[in-house]
């Protein structure tokens, strides 16, 4: 009976070690994937800017366009800007998304940047309400498939306060025909505007890369379990 228990314990211990090593290997695979993704994003950001037409064609073909350098030319519909709750250096405020009407009759929502909460009303920052044809350069951003998390509040189009980029809701709340709204966004670059607001260049590439730390943790647990089990086995044998 004792031999059976010992054999069972050894098998269980070896299985646990194998699982821990497998988890470590999985994190190493994730590390390689994340580093490749970050490298691809860095490359996209520093390539020559593509036009909105080129980005739209790539979206139609299923290509990845997130964080690609791009440019678009059109006229801002300043009376239809949408406001997304945000902070900048600890200051509460909003990111201003304004539709840009392109020459072909389509519309592109542009994240023009940050304004503090007391400047939410466009009437308080009229200098930044650009008129006439504008050429905007920045980074393309993919639309979201759905709400990022159940913890994210529902958007409130009536009060013009958004918590996540629901492109369909944004188009509907402005009265724009959804079939004419391009299925991606443009984050404007840091070029200053008259009056200083909105403050552009707010794109954050926040992709945590802790996979090496996790892998070392799993490998460390496997090694610790192996050492402790080995010492226990030797003590029992003696």
UniProtKB/TrEMBL annotation:
UniProt topology in membrane: Multi-pass membrane protein
Coiled coil: none
Compartments reported by the entry: Cell membrane; Membrane
Keywords for the protein's UniProt record, in alphabetical order: Cell membrane, Membrane, Transmembrane, Transmembrane helix
InterPro entries, A to Z: Surf1/Shy1, Surf1/Surf4
PROSITE patterns per record: SURF1
Highest taxon of source: Bacteria
Any matching Pfam family: SURF1
Membrane-spanning intervals of the chain: 216-234
Homology family: Belongs to the SURF1 family.
PANTHER family: SURFEIT LOCUS PROTEIN, SURFEIT LOCUS PROTEIN 1
Name this protein carries in UniProt: SURF1-like protein
